[in-house]
Design brief:
128 residues; mainly alpha
């Protein structure tokens, strides 16, 4: 069986599958944010996680990517980088506390982005 079929077999409810995708991506984003040493480099590590999350959510709703969808996704990811910029500027050189705050911001931004994508896919059935 394919991984997608196994995932659907073990978690039959679509809401729970979306939740699992978003929470897993949020944990990965937090890990990436906390593990980066150079201030500002966490955005580079988090962007692929968020794009993978949006891809998985689109696949969950059986929505195929278009060029416009890819562009809007990248713009949304860039928007999250700007949102995290404030936390990076304030806490860039605080060793432990800064990593914890960057991880918390990464989780909240990834969660918000994920649920916004789910709401958009449910309402319109497309990403753009």
């Amino acid at each position: 069986m394919k991984l997608k079929e196994e995932f659907r077999r073990y978690i039959p409810d679509q809401d729970k599958r979306c939740s699992a995708i978003i929470h897993t991506a949020s944990a990965a984003a937090a890990t990436a944010a906390a593990a980066t040493v150079v201030p500002g480099s966490d955005s580079v590590a988090i962007a692929p996680v968020q794009v993978a999350m949006i891809t998985a959510l689109a696949d969950e709703f059986e929505v195929h990517w278009t060029d416009a969808a890819v562009r809007s996704t990248l713009y949304a990811t860039l928007g999250t980088m700007v949102g995290k910029g404030g936390a990076n500027l304030v806490l860039r050189w605080v060793p432990v506390y800064g990593n914890v705050v960057r991880a918390a911001v990464a989780v909240s931004v990834t969660q918000a982005l994920g649920w916004a994508v789910v709401r958009k896919l449910r309402r319109d059935g497309r990403l753009v």
